[in-house]
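Re: your question about Recombinase

S., sorry for the slow reply, the queue was backed up all week. Below is exactly what I fed in.
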Amino acid sequence: MMITTPDRWTVDYCRISYDKRGAAEGVGTQHVENENSADELGLTIAQTYTDNDLSAFSGIERPDYQRMIEDIEAGKIGTIIIRHADRLHRSVEEVSRFIKVARAHDVKLYSGMKGSFYNLNKAAGRKDLINDTLNAEYESDHRGERVSDARKRQARNGDYGGGVRPFGWGVDTGRVRSVCVNPKAPVAERRYEDRPVLDMSRHNEAEAAEIRRWADDLLSGVSMRQVLADLAERGVKTVAEADGRNLRRNGRAVKHEGWNSRTIKQILTHPRTSGHAVYQGEIVKRNAFEPIIPEEKRQALITLFADPTRKTTPGNTPKWLGSLIYRCGVCDDGTTMTVRKNSRGQFVYRCRTKGHCSRLAAEADSFVELAMIERLSRADIADLLPQRASVDVAGLRDRLRELDAEETDVAIRAAQKKITAVMMEVFAAEIERQRDEIRKLINDATAESPLAEFAASDDAAKVWHSKSLGRKREIIRLLTPITLMPVPAVRGRGFDPASVRFDAWQRAREVA
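Result:
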């Protein structure tokens, strides 16, 4: 059968969703088949439109498809040859728009696999094209559902579903797999490298220990800024840095930027950290893996990060043991001290408001550390550990959510003038009081005491020196207020122990 379209092109359209090898072999095969169809029709293909490695789903830009539509609207095209309807469209919305354009410009559409034209000027022909597209859409959706079900089943079984290795997980199995590092390059130019196969159901012990350290630090009062500063000082690597991954943003290579508070929070609050299997953000199986931190501690961290009273504004991270902790002995009213340089360029502690009590910072900190180690070496240190009562952490968190709902209800009632502004303030204050009590209960039940390791060790100095600066500062806050006294300096005497006062326990003389 001879089909003529005077002065207009016969064209073909070729598309493949996923070109694994990057050699465009799939679209090449389609074009050959389309040429055979054109020969049978007595036509010659004057132009080929090709979208390789691109899906046909609506919303995904297909440059050559769009160029073909523009050529139809310009009156250049008379006949389009395709292998199958699903090469042209995968959604009813898009095929409906195509039919409208094709009919407006009297364009014929031929399918090689169907072996006939779609008569777009007849309802039956339009229905055939839409049905063939619907069938393709159904098959694709069904395949997607099967993949989704398989992924979910994999997650329930505790199997790792692939992707970037989560921090804290992955043990080398001793096996390797070959991975192409430039899969889109021509076949002859592709490079492969062997990468270790990891058991993702087991902890990377060094990274898991880091996660536990963050959790304990934050729950014992150490600030997020101090945690980040400690990570930077110790040179702890992120997954991308440890695994040598090349990071890209908007198609461009970018440098590793290290840790940030958002990443720390995501790791600490992710269900997998407590051993739960997750699929698309939902827990599909609890206790699928050995937990890095227990569930109650993860929930406590979620509560901590959600606390609106928690200070999150940026500021300077303390670099000295007693900055903003040691008190001024001249003011003697709780005013704290900070570290500055004196006229000789030495770092000294001074009253933050009036500049009193200049004390060499390094010497003061060294003396305080000796005092702390001595106190933490005593046998009665266990008496300072909190005696925890049994607390329903999950129930307390549910009560926090109920209080949020009550607060919203009070606000609505006030807006509707059902209660007065004074009553609203009373209700709001009571809700906040209950919140504070609940947060304290959760913290007391889940927080790791900074003193726990000292009670279990006979080497307080070793434990002390293993702690981050932030944790040391929290231990000082817990044990005793420290005041730097205005003791006159004596030439040649060195640091005077009398210049440090431990207000809860007088140990300066004994340590000296």
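Residues 165 and 243 are 9 Å apart (CA to CA). Residues 318-383+447-512 form one domain.

Happy to talk it through on Thursday.
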